[in-house]
Design brief:
This protein is α+β, with helices and mostly antiparallel strands. The chain starts with 8 loop residues before the first helix and ends in a 36-residue tail after the last helix. It has 17 helices and 14 strands. The strands form 4 sheets. Strands 4-5-10-11-1-13-12 form a 7-stranded antiparallel β-sheet. A 3-stranded mixed β-sheet has the order 7-6-14, with no helix packed on it. Strands 2-3 form a two-stranded antiparallel sheet.
């Protein structure tokens, strides 16, 4: 079909049959599922907009230890010679070594890239109607009142974000997560379907802490990198002693700063100056009144930069939906011999098609806007792309149709829309509720609950009794890493 024309109902029906032959309940069973494709892998070779002869800038992260300078996320490092021992502001000594090269450098982490791709369903007019839309509202100071509202699709922890947990819709969110944890994805699909695609960990919940790994994993990495350093000089209108005399009206400080200017060639020399002189000298440079020298990370030269996208068909095929009267009970089944409720085949197959279509649309969104502009000094252009299916049964007609579907945006939208209608997904997560509002009291309660939980988890765990399920408490939060590198000014993404 022409990728620029709207697909006909017959074309959507035909592709849906192919997708059901790969993802449907009738074929995705133990044994037969092993004969089907398991993963879609999309790789892109990217070129820096400035070319390979100029450094490209990865995200920087906090260094180890107090007052440590920022670092890049490098792996397979080949270290150079020891340069010198240097005193930090906290009095500790650091051995500074330069890095000759590294095998790998993160250019955009899975968490950050998930944040970039998820907002496609907020920003793209053709994709907005495919998922529920709403905003989270929190109280702010008057000067930040314009920053009170955030689209749910921009929340780094998604359905597990505190702006959902403390909102007036917290009970509905908790109910959707509990249902998903028990095997029924329908409530979460109707509430916040992108949480299933990009993953979430409800690690701060009380009584249950469900963790769901992302179906779509995307990242950008550089290989064979050589880190660079940069030097900078800002020339201000004042010398430090003139600024002290003219602006501060303090001739004694000016006299001391005239000596400070002559002596302050490095950090060790600066410590000899009085604290008052050092404070004002730093402030003058910081505010642009006087000269300021700078040094730091200067990007990397990279032999190769690649973007990787993995969509797990196995994960999608683990999703089931139930009708209201057949959904698993929240209380669970007391008897193992009792008949378990059966998932609804039509809803389940529609849900799997829906998630696949959304994942493919999200994956292609950054590419569809022209380039991967990650940050200043890091704009990457795709030069080569390869889409492959991994697993078995790759020569079937259904597998061939799936591979062709991956790059067909118009047909993907049609597939998603048809499944969206079957699943009865509304325009907002909760009917007639476009704002999830948190109050000062609800946010305070959330904070206080976190404090109580911290004390509880700090206690020594009790030994599990016979037959009891062992629960492993893993520190950290997969989604929390999403917020450490923002799309606009990365320093780390769900």
């Amino acid at each position: 079909m022409n990728q620029d024309t709207k697909p006909t109902p017959e074309e959507i029906t035909a592709i849906n049959k192919h997708l059901d032959a790969l993802l449907g309940m009738d074929v995705r069973k133990p044994g037969s599922a092993g004969k089907l494709p398991a993963v879609i892998r999309i790789t892109e070779t990217l070129e820096p907009a400035g070319g390979k002869d100029f450094p490209v800038f990865p995200p920087s992260y906090a260094g180890e230890g107090t007052n440590a300078p920022p670092v890049y996320d490098l792996n397979g490092i080949e270290w150079g010679e020891v340069l010198r021992e240097k005193s930090a502001k906290d009095g500790s000594k650091r051995i500074t070594r330069y890095i000759k090269r590294a095998r790998h450098c993160t250019m955009d982490s899975p968490q950050s890239h998930a944040n970039r791709t998820e907002i496609a369903f907020r920003d793209d007019g053709e994709l907005r109607t495919l998922v529920p839309q709403a905003e989270a509202k929190i109280p702010r100071k008057p000067e930040f009142a314009d920053q009170s509202n955030t689209n749910l699709l921009a929340l780094p922890h998604r359905i597990a974000d505190f702006r959902v947990r403390a909102s007036n819709q917290k009970d509905a969110a908790a109910k959707a997560i509990r249902a998903f944890a028990k095997g029924d994805a329908l409530p979460l699909l109707r509430f916040m379907p992108t949480s299933i695609i990009f993953g979430f960990w409800d690690s701060r919940a009380v009584g249950y802490q469900h963790k769901h790994s992302r179906i779509l994993l995307t990242r950008i990495d550089a290989f064979g990198v050589v880190p660079c350093e940069k030097r900078s000089l800002y020339t201000g209108p004042y010398s430090k002693d003139e600024c002290a005399s003219v602006v501060l009206g303090n001739d004694n400080l000016a006299e001391e700063l005239s000596t400070y200017d002559a002596k302050a060639t490095d950090d060790d020399e600066k410590t000899k100056a009085s604290k008052e002189a050092k404070k004002w000298a730093d402030k003058m440079a910081e505010r642009g009144f006087s000269n300021a020298l700078g040094s730091g990370l200067g990007g990397v030269f990279a032999e190769r930069i690649e973007r990787l996208a993995l969509i797990s068909l196995t994960d999608i095929a683990s999703v089931f939906c139930f009708t209201t009267d057949s959904a698993p009970s929240e209380a669970g089944t007391k008897s193992d011999t009792a008949k378990k409720p059966a998932p609804d085949k039509a809803l389940t197959n529609a849900a799997r098609r829906y998630l696949l279509a959304l994942a493919l649309l999200a994956e292609s969104h950054p590419r569809s806007i022209g380039s991967y502009r990650l940050r200043s000094g890091c704009e990457l252009l795709p030069s080569k792309m390869e889409t492959v299916l991994l697993g078995t049964g790759l020569d079937s007609g259904a597998a061939t149709a799936l591979k062709a579907l991956c790059g067909n945006r118009v047909l993907l939208i049609g597939v998603a829309k048809a499944a969206h209608d079957i699943l009865k997904i509304q325009a907002t997560p909760i009917p007639d509720c476009a704002v999830f509002e948190s109050t000062q009291a609800s946010l305070k309660g959330e904070l206080e609950q976190g404090g109580k939980k911290a004390k509880t988890t700090a206690a020594k765990p009790k030994r599990s009794g016979k037959g009891a399920a062992a629960v492993e408490a893993t520190p950290g939060d997969d989604a929390a890493a999403d917020s450490t590198e923002s799309p606009e000014d990365p320093t780390s993404e769900a």
